[in-house]
Amino acid sequence: MIFHLTMRLQNKVILVTGSATGIGKAIAKRCVAEGAKVVIHGLEADLAAEVVAEIGADKAVAHVEDLTSETCPATLVNLAVSTFGRLDAIVNNAAMVTASNIHTTDLAFFRKMLEVNTLAPFALIKAALPELRKVRGCVLNIGSVNAWSGEPNLMPYSVSKGALMTLTRNLGDTLMREDGVRVNQINPGWVLTENEAKRKREHGLKDDWYADLPKVYAPAGRILWPEEIAAAAVYWLADESGPISGQVMDLEQHPFIGRNPPKDSTTIP
User: Fold this and answer.
1) Residues of 165-175 as b/e, b for ≥16 C-beta within 10 angstroms?
2) What is the chain's Cα-based Rg?
3) Which of 157, 210, 217, 235 is catalytic?
4) What are the pLDDT digits (tens) for 71-125?
5) Range with the lowest mean pLDDT among 7-16, 44-53, 138-147, 218-227?
6) Which of 59, 77, 105, 249 suits 258 as a labelling partner, its CA being 20 to 30 A distant?
7) CA-CA distance, 209 to 185, in Å (whole number)?
8) In 121-226, at which residue ranges do the beta strands (DSSP E only) sit?
9) How far is it, in rounded angstroms, from Cα 133 to Cα 123?
10) Domains by residue range for the chain, with CATH
11) Cα distances (Å, whole numbers) of residue 15 to 27, 60, 117, 161, 218
12) 210 labelled catalytic
């Protein structure tokens, strides 16, 4: 079987949550560049509208709603089908990223983190399954390298991404076997998104903090760009990934598990 390496998502309809900014926005734009039509989702109406305007109203439609709302998953699926006639893939990208450790985390906050980062993706997969089954579509979950253990001050976030990873492996087997629907996950490392830049500035770093990073954190001299994550996402959304399902791939510039940083490494706040 020969695949053409251009327009790899021709005529596909892809729903990307959290696509008004950051990695989700980059994925949505790359999907359109590869021939797809997209459903944009986010919490900021103005930002979602800007993405649709940038992509083109004939190739994108937006819905603004909290993903944990009971009505949101079905609304997003129905919007894709009513606008573009089908739904080929969903990208569970929307996530809550907030610093917290065992001492600063209460049960209400932990439940909220799991609700947004793990249960909402599950609810969307469940809502989308009847449409995905029709076309032997796929799911791509966007996790984090923190899923393996996580930074001390990202405890609830890391746990939520670890749970998402197990969900990916479980459904990757079950849904492929029963419905012909692939489920995979990519775990990005440190990515220069708008929100990450804002968080680091709030931690007291200068505006161009990412221009001079210790090699221990960024061997390449810089961190990842959203567009690089988007390029990797296309493979998992395209037919060229074949029947591969239930897989998790880390996207970082160094071995994340078992790595031994130099003792004189500088901590990034």
Assistant:
1) bebbbebbeeb
2) 18
3) 157
4) 999 999 999 999 999 999 999 999 999 999 999 999 999 999 999 999 999 999 9
5) 218-227
6) 105
7) 29
8) 138-142, 182-188
9) 16
10) 13-189+226-250 (3.40.50.720), 194-223 (no CATH)
11) 10, 10, 16, 20, 32
12) no
Tokens of 69: 């709302």
Tally the residues of the chain.
269
> Distance (Å, rounded) from C-alpha 201 to C-alpha 50?
24
- How many helical (H) and strand (E) elements, i.e. helices and strands, does the chain have? 8, 7
d(CA 154, CA 99): 5
Name the β-bridge partners of 41.
63
Dist CA 113 CA 150 (whole Å): 14
Backbone region of residue 214 per phi and psi (left: phi > 0; alpha: psi in -120 to 50; beta: other values): beta
The whole-angstrom separation of Cα 98 and Cα 153 is 9
With b for 16 or more beta-carbon neighbours within 10 A and e for fewer, the 149-163 pattern comes to ebeeebbbbbbbbbb
Structure tokens at 143: 């996790």
Tokens in use for 203? Answer: 């931690």
Query: Residue 211 CA to chain centroid, in angstroms?
Result: 25
Q: How far apart are CA 227 and CA 164, in angstroms?
A: 23
Q: Which residue has the tokens 């994340």?
A: 256
Q: Is there a contact between 43 and 66 (Cβ–Cβ < 8 Å)?
A: yes
Q: C-alpha 210: how far from its chain's center? A: 22
First-to-last C-alpha distance (Å) of the chain: 49
Q: Residue 133 to residues 88, 136, 177, 245: CA-CA distances in angstroms?
A: 9, 5, 11, 15
